[in-house]
């Protein structure tokens, strides 16, 4: 019976696991601090000692600059490694158990593979590939294995047969009306999508978890005031706020992430509060209180780790909304037109659908598959980590 109890993710005494040596929060925290310090020093060096147009890594022979959003993205990757990937490695028995539950959902496994491709492409692609360049002489090149009527044979990169220009592997997904390679733009769009996913998740989780647990354990009039503030956040017209900030300060990917993250944590806070109130009735929580544990110790050591399953699935299902909304804003021409997102690429090809549909179809399909993959992944995580909640929903 005890073994079965330990397998329930929402009823795990994480302090007991920590004392057993399988999951030491202090080691993970120290590792996070040690790896974050060089990132902070690099950010200071980039902001204070390099010119605005000087690439960050020019001194090592790589003509690559880092924006503020890139530093935050790397920081979130470090967080994911030390507090998600490493704990999974440190707890092989629990990892095997949940992987067994997860892989029963075949679409979710395929979705995980696809998201892995997007993640690796977003990380490695900008390092090994040059940014998409404008070459008007090779505009409207068709994808490989397809062809279009060639009105100007001199500009066709591939073969010209029977008056038709055939696609080539040099541009496997064709080119845009500005001659930019569609495949390269999709790969760079993977980076934008991963930045949105990781950074927004980190901001929403940090604020939502802190606000929700504090509200649950404060109780009384403090809880009432905090929940009314959450109601205001949930009903606030975020789009209008983004337009106002866009008008005052200008648009950009970082501004989009910050604005929409700061107004998207309300649902997470309310959900965490509900789960915190439920978990507070567990026996190991009562035992900790009787033993004299502080409220901070109870929240950090018991409540937050044990609502992790609900938080993970809730955030996973929140990411597609951010990706879709960014694509919609880019399609409408709102934001930074220099950001090579999938929405920008779709917007660039909307006037050419009649004779160059690949400009819209290629990024549109990739965006659709990515959003669908996150939805499948969230549902599978809910089934594997929190089956009781899934049973209640059905």
UniProtKB/TrEMBL annotation:
The alphabetized list of GO BP terms reads: transmembrane transport
Q: How does it sit in the membrane?
A: Multi-pass membrane protein
Membrane spanning residue stretches: 25-45, 71-89, 109-129, 192-217, 315-335, 355-377
An example of a Pfam family matching this protein is BPD_transp_1
Q: Cite a GO CC annotation.
A: plasma membrane
Q: PANTHER family this protein is in?
A: D,D-DIPEPTIDE TRANSPORT SYSTEM PERMEASE PROTEIN DDPC-RELATED (PTHR43386:SF1), OLIGOPEPTIDE TRANSPORT SYSTEM PERMEASE PROTEIN APPC (PTHR43386)
- Give the protein's recorded name: Peptide/nickel transport system permease protein
